Amino acid sequence: MRDSQARELVNQAQFDQAELVEEDGDEEDWWDADGNDDSDGGIIDPVVVARGFHRAMEFTDLIGVCQGFVAGASRLVPKLRGREFSESQLALVTRHLERIRATADWIEIAVSTGKVDMDEALAELLRGQ
After folding, report:
1. Tally of CB atoms within 10 A around 49
2. From its phi and psi, is residue 27 left (phi > 0), alpha (psi between -120 and 50) or beta?
3. 22, 106, 31, 38: which is closest to 66 by C-alpha?
4. Over the stretch 78-109, which tens digit does the pLDDT of each residue have?
5. Exposed, middle or buried, 69 (CB in 10 Å: 0-12/13-18/19+)?
């Protein structure tokens, strides 16, 4: 992430997430994420450790994408004051906003339900068709 504001927002999101987990009291150690315990003498399976790191990175990447979009929009939108757009520019922005909304809905569904499959209509929209 080249944008220092996006980097800062991602870091803040990580701290916020860690605090939420601690407050909920549902803190699950990354090595116990799959329900494995270390009853075999304290030896932790490296595959489980790697899986925990991978999940943490995926979460951080998702937060980073969201925060990067917000940071970019927050920086650019105020610069549009007084700017008039042509019909074609307005149509292009509208199409991209539809894609952004559909993607945000897809993320929300994936996070809340675990269903990450994309339906054909969403796939076509994201491909720009």
Report:
1. 13
2. beta
3. 106
4. 999 999 999 999 999 999 999 999 999 989 98
5. middle
Count the Cβ atoms, other than its own, within 10 Å of residue 71: 20
For 119, other C-beta atoms within 10 Å of its C-beta total: 9
Residue 63 and residue 7 in contact, taking contact as beta carbons nearer than 8 Å? no
CB atoms within 10 A of CB 115: 10
pLDDT digits (tens, 9 = 90+) for 12-44: 777 676 666 556 554 455 445 455 555 556 778
pTM over cut 0.85: no
Query: Tell me, what amino acid is at 35?
Result: G
Residue type, position 57, single letter: M
Q: Are 19 and 80 in contact (CB under 8 A)?
A: no
